[in-house]
Amino acid sequence: MPNIIPITDFDAPELDVYAxxxxxxxxxxxxxEKGLFIAESPKVVERALDAGYQPVSLLxxxxxxxxxxxxxxxxxxxxxxxxxxxxxxxxxxxxxLTRGVLCAMRRPPLPSAEKIxxxxxxxxxxxNVMNPTNIGAIFRSAAALNMDAVLLxxxxxxxxxxxxxxxSMGTVFxxxxxxxxxxxxxxxxxxxxxxxxxxxxxxxxxxxxxxxxQLMAEDKLAIILGTEGDGLAASTIADxxxxxxxxxxxxxxxxxxxxxxxxxFWQLGx
Length: 270
Known about the structure:
Layout: E1 3-6, H1 16-19, H2 23-27, E2 36-40, H3 42-50, E3 55-61, H4 70-75, E4 80-84, H5 86-93, E5 101-106, H6 113-117, E6 122-126, H7 132-144, E7 149-152, H8 162-168, E8 177-179, H9 185-193, E9 197-201, E10 208-209, H10 213-216, E11 221-225, H11 234-239, E12 242-245, H12 257-268
Parallel strand pairs: 1-4, 3-4, 6-7, 6-11, 7-8, 9-11, 9-12, 10-12
Antiparallel strand pairs: 2-5, 3-5
């Protein structure tokens, strides 16, 4: 039976997760087992539930109780379902809700890099990609274009930030991912120990084209993409088996990292 709770007190502590806690507070690095994230829209929430993520509470427009959120509510058991009209929710959260539904969910423990790469054929590695929009877009491309896993270096934005989840359309729940503790030395060594060759996406005199036959024929390949603006670190490029470029025209020297990921994943994920 759904536990429907109309919102009468904006200051209720149960609503802090939606209205007052920052993304860093939600992560809760001091007690990671208590970390939370917010999934937005019924479709995204359902993808999280399909992947086994545990819901804590829902916040939604009253009209969605028997509408778009009906199936989500049914799948979430007896967790609190906070409801109000659209204008009240906008006032509470400070922004318009996508499809009128938010779900607070628990952050699971992250798997090891070795675990998610074992058995994988194509892996994406993100080095210091800090924009949540780019993270979300890259995950959407990774899911659509045959990447088996995504590794992130410690400076990357967290894939479970609300904006990253929203931009990814919930594909962050469909592609296995984790952070690597040591990069590039430890991470590249780990990938090589599992049989991967590494391809650094970067402009260089040593770069091969993304359609290079030897590159495309590699049985196991890790595609490494760098931070916005600066690209990959020189040490990462030096340690990689390939340096790879996407041929450009009209004097353009590079693509946004999210756009570059889509091109790279399509070409090398086949």
